[in-house]
Amino acid sequence: MSTVVLGEKFLTMLDKYQESAMRTRRKDLKLDLQKLEACMGLCGELSEIGELLYPELRFKSSLNKSKELVLELGDLLWYTAYYTACYGSRLSTVYMDTRNYNFIPKTKIPVYEFEKSSSDEIYKMLSILIGEVTDLQKKSLFHKHVINADFVLNRVGFILIGIKNIGAKHNFTLKEIMDLNTVKRYARYPNGFTSKDSINRKEYK
């Protein structure tokens, strides 16, 4: 079985972060569009993380932009929390679900490998998982496919594990990623999300 970290305090921390994170989401979108927005956000943030990891991925050199990386991991975590909430679930629930598997379902990727791999291997696996859920949302919204929520939430759990483990490779805990993201979000959206604040954002320094 998986060796994911468990503990009541840790799981409570996940849910408190999610509750806080949802204060800065848009509330005027229909649910299907919220899900699509979340998936598009996952793709965008993964791209930004890839840009920061590129020297490490391509040349096996050390990363000298750890602060920028942890902020982008926080943004990826925010969209993970958002997407989870769109399905009426909690981060603690999807996180705990990962312990039931030796392999990521419907792949040949061992959970142990996903947890212990290098940043570049974890990034590749995140690309697969995020690509899968985004494709499913596209088919649901535009092609009228029915989505298996359990399958999607399983993928989300492993996305969460990937965020935690890339952070750990660069000496950041998941709590630190959450805390920095919370500071960034409230600096950007002190009164909750508005289009005006998004366009005229004050970037976190």
Give me the secondary-structure category: mainly alpha
Helix content: 55-70%
Head-to-tail CA distance between termini: 40 Å
Tell me the total number of β-strands. 0
N-to-C SSE string, H for helix and E for strand: HHHHHHHHH
User: Whole-number radius of gyration?
Assistant: 16 Å
Give a topology summary.
Blueprint (H helix, E strand, L loop, with lengths): L7 H14 L9 H29 L6 H21 L4 H7 L13 H6 L2 H25 L5 H21 L4 H15 L6 H5 L6
Task: Explain what the structure shows.
The chain has 205 residues and is mostly helical. The protein has one domain (28-190). It is built from nine helices and no strands. It is globular and about 45 Å long. The mean pLDDT is 88.
Which key phrases capture this entry?
globular; 0% strand
Nutshell version of this structure?
The protein is an all-alpha fold.
